[in-house]
Specification:
alpha+beta, five-stranded antiparallel beta sheet, elongated
Length: 299
């Protein structure tokens, strides 16, 4: 075999190998691209946290306090980081100036985050991450702030609210479907009272859900939850206070929810929660056109 022919054969083999490697690389990158977008699409659509409401309390004095603003930023960073560990609820006091945090220190920031009881893992983290970004944009100068999503809540304040009952500000939402008659409100209230009794009787739980058979073809699904730092008596008081608002705000609707900083409840004829023994639910973004909002500010 001549040297020229040998080098020509080797060159063709190398060219074929390079083409094959390039094709494999392109195929691998394409598959990775597709898998990434499938994951993001699934995460975004199967569990899209839906913004509900935010509350901001501003103060010129605190706005100009760079130490306090720094503590707020550190708090939000902590919430983002702590939720990534798999925790679904926690609270902390951030104070860069002193080791002994107390209510008399004007720079200390108290904050918390919480996910709905049936939401765990990456779904909770995804919602908390969204809330952290959103509250920084919606309340850039807030002394106290809270933001609610359909499956999580975060908040911070310049005073310690841990273990304290806070029922203001409160808000509610209702669906568009009307109740058939006034007896449905009575049934719904009785069902929610059962859940209040359940959550305040169970030692290590701050939330409860229930499925209620109204007829052979009709059911209702309920959820109640309190902040994890409330006592059982405090939890009951908060939930009963929210339930007392229902006849005035929501009694004519099938779907309704009432929420405050310390607790909340919801009932619907569609199952909106997930139990740990079930497959993860496909949470739908309800869209603003399907909900009616009313903010109840009572100080």
């Amino acid at each position: 075999m001549s040297p020229l022919l040998f080098f020509e054969i080797v060159e063709r083999k190398n060219s074929t190998m390079n083409t094959s490697q390039m094709n494999m690389t392109c195929t691998t990158r394409f598959l990775s691209f597709i898998l990434l977008h499938i994951f993001l699409f699934t995460l975004t659509n199967a569990q899209s946290p839906y913004y509900m409401l935010n509350f901001c309390q501003n103060s010129t004095e605190k706005t100009n306090n760079t130490s306090y603003r720094s503590n707020v930023n550190n708090l939000l960073l902590w919430i983002d980081t702590d939720s990534a560990t798999g925790s679904v609820s926690n609270h902390i006091a951030i104070n860069s100036n002193k080791t002994n945090n107390n209510d008399n220190d004007g720079d200390v920031v108290y904050g918390f985050y919480d996910c709905r009881g049936d939401i765990t893992g990456s779904f909770c983290q995804f919602c908390i991450n969204a809330a952290v970004r959103d509250i920084a944009q919606r309340c850039p100068n807030g002394v106290s702030a809270m933001i609610w999503y359909d499956i999580c809540v975060i908040g911070y304040s310049d005073h310690n609210t841990s273990g304290k009952i806070s029922v203001t500000p409160s808000w509610n939402l209702t669906g568009t479907k009307n109740a058939k008659d006034s007896t449905e409100l009575e049934k719904a209230v009785n069902d929610m009272r059962k859940l209040i009794g359940k959550v305040t009787a169970e030692a290590n739980s701050n939330w409860a859900v229930g499925e209620f058979n109204w007829s052979d073809t009709e059911k209702r699904y309920g959820w109640v939850q309190c902040n994890s730092d409330l006592t059982k008596d405090g939890c009951r008081y908060c939930l009963e206070t929210m339930l007392d608002k229902v006849p005035q705000c929501c009694g004519t609707k099938v779907k309704w929810a009432v929420v405050s900083p310390s607790c909340g409840m919801e009932i619907d004829d569609n199952k909106f929660y997930n139990l740990q023994t079930e497959s993860p639910p496909s949470f739908q973004n309800p869209g603003i056109s399907f909900l009616e909002f009313e903010l109840l500010l009572r100080y």
